[in-house]
Each structure stands twice: as structure tokens, then as C-alpha cells.
Amino acid sequence: MKTLLYPKIIILFTLLLLLCCSFGCSQKGSAVAFQDVVIEDDEVPVDKMDMLLNDDFFDEEKVVEQIYYDPLEPMNRVFFEFNDKLYYWFLSPLNTAYTAILPWDIRFSIGNFVNNLAAPIRLVNNLLQLKIKDAGVEISRFLINSTLGVFGFGDPAMLDFGLAPREEDFGQTLGYWGVGEGVYLCVPIIGPSNVRDLVGFTADAYTHPMVYYIDELYVSAGYYAGSRVNLLSLNPEVYEDLKKYSLDPYVSMRQVYLEYRRKKIDDNPMQRRSDNEL
């Protein structure tokens, strides 16, 4: 079952990639440019801003232009609405019941276990980016947490040894080597993404040990769904706050996601040039 399923998934994502790239290239002029406010720490504070906000952390505003390439926006908005309804009709009630049953400490330990099990993804991608020291940290974290941390439910590597996880995935690896992000995508169930990260998501699935030890699709799907619900239970207010304080939640989600991903890849100047050429 598993040997037949995953090639089909790869073919599906490849076809989607070709469709998005061909459609996006034919509509190059439909990229959307927004003016974002970036707060620079080394600028002199503006008196007017201080009077309005009474906050010394706000400095002079510098307006820069950020490009969000979204030629598939009509389709993406449909999928965004689908995911939104899925959240409020299913995930939110499920999260309420989940948090009522399990205390925060147990849910946090489950999050540690899920994070530890995904160590091979971080290890492989650190190696692919030639970050040998960070790869060594990931090996150390996995060994420490799998033993002293009781199969990863604890995180003594961070608490006792100060070894923070070196978060890398294949989408970041592609970006590190200069692959552009492509068009923005809102994927049903998965959520915000882009062509590069969708390919990376598929590749990372092959690096996760669950693929090689569990044959049944429903078990793998259950593990993925359970890990997402547990993550939601630890950060329940993020999505609802985004909707509450946004004039257009779709635009805000797109901006937050793309800026977050760009900052995670921003240690490579070649990647910044690649994305700006889109």
C-alpha cells in the first residue's frame, strides 16, 4: 500500500508544481506589491510616534516594498475559506475538548516527543546546507532527549545543556541554494505555502521516520493530525488573533507566512536576489 501511495503523491505535487509555474509565468504582471512598515532598531525615535503609542520600543518608520506573488489568489481564497470553516467547525471544538482532557504539561511533553521524532529532517537539511556544526547539535539533541529525556518527552538538551533545535527543512534548503519561492499557495488542510515549500514538505515526508515504520496510511494521517492538534493546543490564540485584528485575514495570513519563511532563509544573500526576481 505504502509503496504505491507515495509515488502517486509525488506525481500529484509535481503536476501541481508545473501547473502553478506555467500559470504564474503567464501572469507575471499580476504580482501584488504592498508597502510594509519595518521598524529599524538603530533609527532615532519619532516624537509623534512616542506621543501616540507612548512606547520607547517604536522607532522611526521606514517604508519598504515587499512583493507577494499571488496570481492564484481567487483559487487560494476558496481554499482559505475551506480551511477557515474546517478550523471553526472541527479543529476549534476538538481543541477545546483536547485541552480539557489533557493538562498543559502533558501536551507540552507530547510536543517535545513530536519535535524529537522529526530530528532527522533537521539533521539532513542542516547537512544539505553545509551547516555541519548545527547538524552536530541536532545529533546531540536527539541522543540526549531520547535517553535522558525519556524517548523525547523531555528536553534536557535545551534545559540542561543549552542546545536549542536548529530548525531547518527542505523548503529552507532549496531557498538556501537560491531556488525561488514561486507562487503563493493556500493548500486545503495544510494551509499557507508556496511552490518551493510544498515541494519541501513532500521531500521532508520521506525523511521522517514515520514513513519507514508505519505502513498504514490512516495511522500516518492520524499522527500528522494529532501533532497538529497538539501544536494548536499550545498556541490557541494565534489564528483567532490574526483574524480579529485583520481587515482581510487572507492578506494578513499570506503576508505573515511569506515574511516568516523569508526571514528563516534570509541568511543566504543569493536567495534574497532570487526571490526579488519573481
TrEMBL record:
UniProt keyword terms in alphabetical order: Lipoprotein, Signal
GO biological process, one term: intermembrane phospholipid transfer
Domain of life: Bacteria
GO CC terms: membrane
Family indicated by similarity: Belongs to the MlaA family.
Name by which UniProt lists this protein: Surface lipoprotein
Organism for this UniProt entry: Desulfocapsa sulfexigens (strain DSM 10523 / SB164P1)
